[in-house]
Amino acid sequence: MATNDKAEVLIVGAGASGSVYAAVMAKQGKKVVVLEQGPDWQLSDLTSSDIWGRRLKPAGGPFILEGKNPVSYGFQGGWGVGGAALHYFANFPRLLPSDFRIKSEHGRAHDWPISYQDVAPYYDKVARDVGVSGDAKAEEVWRPAGQPYPMPPMKTFRNGQVWLKGFEAAGIRMVPAAVGMNSTEFKGRPACIYDGWCHVGCPIGALANPLVTYLADARKAGTEVRPWSTVTRVLTNDQGTRVTGVEYYDRNKERQVQEANVVVLAAWAAQNPRLLLNSATGKHPKGLANSNGLVGKYMMTHFASGTSAIFDEDLENHMGTTGAQYMSYDRYGKTSHKEGFGSTFIVAGAALKTSGLGGFANARPDLFGADLDEFMKRAKRGFSRITAFGEELPNIENRIELMSDKDELGMPLAKIIHNYNKDAQAVWDANFAEGLQIAKAAGANDVWSARGNMPTIHLMGGTIMGTDASNSVVDSYGRTHEIPNLYIAGPGIFATAGASNPTYTIFALSLRGAEQLASQWSTVAG
Amino acid sequence: MNPIERRDFIKGAATGALAFTVGGVETLLTPREARAQNVPFRLLKANEAETIEALGETLVPGARAAGVAHFIDQQLSVPPGEALLEARILNVRPPYAAFYRAAIGAVDTASKALNSGRDFAQLDPGERHDFVDAMRQNKLQNWKGPGGSLVYLVLRSDAVDVVYGTVEGYDALGIPYMPHIAPQQRW
Predict the structure, then answer these.
(1) What is the mean pLDDT of chain A?
(2) Beta carbons of A372 and B180 less than 8 Å apart
(3) How confident is the model at residue A210, as a pLDDT?
């Protein structure tokens, strides 16, 4: 076993949330070490290919997926420096004020311990840090005013524009999508060239992935990023009152210990609970920060109702970005659909490629052989889709548990158990019904719902925030209630899911948490 | 990633080729080239490759010549973390070879039971079509292995990859590929 020089801040995971903590703390002059289990990806690794892009995804992760609606871990997760934010679509909608008060306003789920106004300044800061394109003024029909985005909206293309007539007929206002992409040059990073390969990684840095934003800042400020380092346990002192570092295995599968004053778990909503549960000691027999039994509970995802259509014109659907061209919160109200409770967020106008789960070969997964070939020839000209993301309410039965089986490092595997409830099913159905109406009103020739297994997108929860240890694992900054120098970052701390793509909120909450850690350093670090 | 591995990795991605063994020497080829040169399979047995080619061709016309069996074979021979298979995204648990072997076994066992002892590759095109249509709906009798719908999805994805997911496939459909970092040999 090897022991390394002690760090002041140790961050587990080099994705969206970990990179924010690293940047903030390194700029404060702290000695920061980031441990990342996968490779040290560079921009030059980001080949424009759905096939090669799979290298950025987890390889048969250590999670067994159970339940009626198994979590799509492989599609959502990341692997290596940059994490899932290396292949995300960079849609940057915010949560809305109602998301933070769902218990107060509707008697459902639970409130966040903070309000939208607590997070809003950080949305604005993140926009200035990483670059967001959009029209903030146009969004303000749905949310409180904030600062304008630093860049104007992205270009739109026919594959997005073609839907507008249908949305108008349905009374749904569409505005330019807020995206973490450059419509113009931004901080030395070039403008997007609209070739639609965002989902396999943007090697020119026009998309705000960690390699060109916070992680670049962190490295410049002296952060050490240590790839191929798989953390297996968080270590505590004899009294169990403070964390002292982590145990990890290096590329040669040799055990190492990295001591630190403060540990930030930023290894995504699935792996953070697995680590906490595997770090049980005599003082913490149920796992760290888990005396209330809430670690691994309230796992949440979004479901998506995709409406597909073929139009009788050449939409050039390969053009644009994998993110959206247009977005709407007009069905975001929790009671927008009488059939079921929960928000819906709508997007339109994503660029399409041929293969991969999101490719248009999978728009009709029932087709094969000559039928598929005929479809591909029609679809490449006139196919497009819109997507309505739906909110799943937190359910304590949706959870992560350790298993008796172990991985190659001797760490127990974990299972993720996930089932949607009746509200989710009802909102999913309602969004399909409305999607078909929109597509027909838009003038599409051939229209269908992209049904199948109910999808599970954007994993959240498992270490939720709340007012105290009676209802949650962490406070609003991500600091665990039980151990003062242990923080958790990422979508795992969301108290509820909303229906907005989560990464903008991940960045904002991480920035809020990191700045609090910096301001309280002497108290927290001991 | 250490410098040597990283260099090889980038080279493979940039050329669009995979490492095949030809005459005992590692050579970078596309799966189509590997099939055309009759490169020996690393893991698949001849009958397994035959089943995969027959399935691939049924799922996506052109998959056989595009090297679907060589693609899968080569990918099964590399560590899961380097694999480019859609199985990775579809939460198939490594080692992926175990899944493919079980899938092939299930297909041929069910085919024999339904078709007087004939493997899937021995069926005529119409019979293959009907078999796959039943498999994707989990409607095959005597099915013993991973779910038929999952086998359909995984193998269909592989066939789609080698036929429609390449630069050549985009060209055939008339879609501009527009890469940032181009796979230089049309992969």
Answers:
(1) 96
(2) no
(3) 98
Residue in chain A lying closest to B58 (CA): A369
CATH number of the domain where residue A133 is located? 3.50.50.60
- Any B CB within 8 A of A36 CB: no
Distance CA A217, CA A213 (A): 6
Question: What span, in angstroms and rounded, lies between the C-alpha atoms of B113 and A149?
Answer: 64
Token duo for residue A268:
């995504």
Over 80: is that where the pLDDT of A51 sits?
A: yes
pLDDT, position B22:
77
pLDDT at A189: 97
- Is residue A201 helix, strand or coil? coil
Domain count, chain A: 1
The strand pairing partners of B150, in sequence order, are none
Distance in Å, alpha carbon of B52 to nearest chain A alpha carbon: 15
- Residues ≥6 apart with Cβ < 8 Å to A220: none
Chain A partners within 8 Å of B90 (Cβ): 74, 357
Using a CB-CB cut-off of 8 Å, the residues of chain A touching B99 are none
A370/B161 Cβ within 8 A = no
CA–CA distances in Å: residue A11 to residues A28, A387, B103:
15, 35, 41
Contacts of A447 (CB under 8 A, 6+ apart): A307, A308, A309, A436, A439, A440
Between the CA of residue B68 and those of A93, B22, B175, what are the distances in Å? 40, 18, 22
The neighbour count for residue A374, using CB atoms within 10 Å, is 11
Instruction: Grade residue B50 by pLDDT with cuts at 50, 70 and 90.
Output: very high
Question: Which residue range(s) make up the domain with A257?
Answer: 2-525
pTM of the entire predicted model: 0.95
Asked if residue B14 has pLDDT above 60, the reply is no
pLDDT confidence bin for B183, thresholds 50/70/90: low
Chain B residue numbers touching A366 (CB-CB < 8 A): 136
Write the ipTM.
0.94
pLDDT for the residue numbered A34: 98
Chain A residues inside the 8 Å CB shell of B82: 55
Among A202, A354, A377, A457, pick the best mutation site for testing chain B contact (most B Cβ within 10 A): A354
Answer yes or no: is pLDDT of B138 > 90: yes
- To test the contact with chain A by mutation, choose from B85, B178, B185 the residue with the greatest count of A C-beta atoms within 10 A, namely B178
C-alpha distance from residue B37 to each of A288, B94, B186 (Å): 57, 29, 17
Q: Report the gap between the CA of B16 and the closest CA in chain A (Å).
A: 9
CB atoms within 10 A of CB A275: 24
Chain B contact probe: residue of A54, A75, A301 with most B CBs at under 10 A? A54
- The answer to whether residue A370 neighbours chain B at the CB level (below 8 Å) is yes
